[in-house]
Amino acid sequence: MKKINELIMPDDLRYAEDHEWARLEGDRVRVGLDDYAQDQLGDIVFVELPQVGDTLKKGGEFATVESVKAVVECYIPVTGEITDVNKELEDAPELVNQSPYGDGWFVELNPSDASEMETLMTSTECVEKLKGAE
Amino acid sequence: MTPLTKKKWRCIELPQTGYRTAWKLQTDLVAARNDKGVETDIVLLLEHPPVFTLGRRGGLENLTVAEDILKDRGIPIVQVERGGNITFHGPGQLVIYPIVDLKSARLGVVDYVEMLEEVVIRVAADWGITSDRNPLNRGVWVGNRKLASVGVAVRRGISFHGVALNVNLSIEPFTWINPCGLKGIGVTSLEMELGSSVPIDPVRKAVKRHLGEVFEVELVMTKIEEFRNCRFKVS
């Protein structure tokens, strides 16, 4: 597993407690799992995503990820309506491991309140928290 | 650094328990652990009556006999949210369901699954049986025969489901499926490997001892009734 200083945690993203990331792109928010989460989970073999049009409340379950015989629930970092899901993950769940911030994204949503992004951790805060837990 | 006082896990030994009942109990305990109604980690030890379960990704295609045959024998098929594919549970198989807050224990999922496997490997070693992990698949194996299956789910950082160790069960029902979705593998039990009778009680004792050692916790035997009196409902 990666050491904390080997983790890639881009500065332009915000991070939730359970290591979902969120990135503001225009008026939409893109969501995925961060490098720490994908590394902890190991080889991902299956991703279950919500439907376009689903409205999800911050902290609600929106996806499940299956790796090495464990199924882990993921929680949406901001409230909003799902506008797009990454269908590529159906056939290529390993993209989450290979490109957690790029091709391995999970969903895109229309946030009810974009200022909710401010409640999430910055990359520095997220890394500090991980160091504190060591 | 070894802590001076070990963390405690509550250990609940149950009589033979139906799959759905045990599943409901686990999800109740996960909810209670999450909202702090229960503040310790818990492990359930039990056996199930005969049942086939399917993982999140299904597995019915790996049932190699007609569903009617199971119906005739009164064996249900249950779909669950754990990882993995089709498997069988029945009397003579010891099921270990730890409900552990992985986040506070600072355990990654991969490490956690490997620790569960380690418990089984050490138990088998107590009976002089050498078992190991297998890159083919999770679980614990004796050669190419599967001794124990692992399937874990994590909700809000709390684990449920767990590991099923074949002690002395009839493995016939496994011949009706491709266990874990794999073709051409065998299933074994402690009793088959040893070639003589292995009762389940001493295996339970060994499991408790090795859970304590591997997870560095003290197991406190607890009756399920204690949880029924909590502020949350365990039905």
Fold and architecture overview:
Chain A is of the alpha+beta class and 134 residues long. Chain A contains 4 helices and 9 strands. In chain A, β1 (14-15) and β2 form a beta hairpin. The longest helix of chain A has 10 residues, at 123-132. Chain B has 6 helices and 12 strands. In chain B, α2 (67-72) links the parallel β3 (51-54) and β4 (77-79). In chain B, α3 (109-126) packs across α5. The A-B interface holds A 1, 18, 40-42, 46, 48, 64, 66-73, 75, 133 and B 55-57, 81-84, 106, 108-110, 112-113, 138-139, 150-157. β7 (70-75) of chain A pairs parallel with β9 of chain B.
Chain pair sharing the greatest interface = A-B, 18 and 23 residues
Strand content range of chain B:
25-35%
By CATH, the architecture of chain B is named: 2-Layer Sandwich
> What structural class do the secondary elements of chain B suggest?
alpha/beta
Report strand % of chain A. 25-35%
What is the helix content of chain B? 25-40%
CATH class of chain B: Alpha Beta
Task: Itemize the secondary structure elements and their pairings.
The complex is a heterodimer of chains A (134) and B (235).
Chain A: E1 14-15, E2 20-25, E3 28-33, H1 35-41, E4 44-48, E5 55-56, E6 61-67, E7 70-75, E8 80-85, H2 88-91, H3 95-98, E9 107-111, H4 123-132
Antiparallel strand pairs in A: 1-2, 2-3, 3-9, 4-6, 5-8, 6-7, 8-9
Chain B: E1 7-13, H1 19-34, E2 41-46, E3 51-54, H2 67-72, E4 77-79, E5 87-89, E6 93-99, H3 109-126, E7 132-134, E8 137-142, E9 145-155, E10 158-166, E11 186-187, H4 190-194, H5 200-214, E12 217-221, H6 224-228
Parallel strand pairs in B: 1-2, 1-12, 3-4, 9-11
Antiparallel strand pairs in B: 2-6, 3-5, 6-10, 7-8, 8-9, 9-10
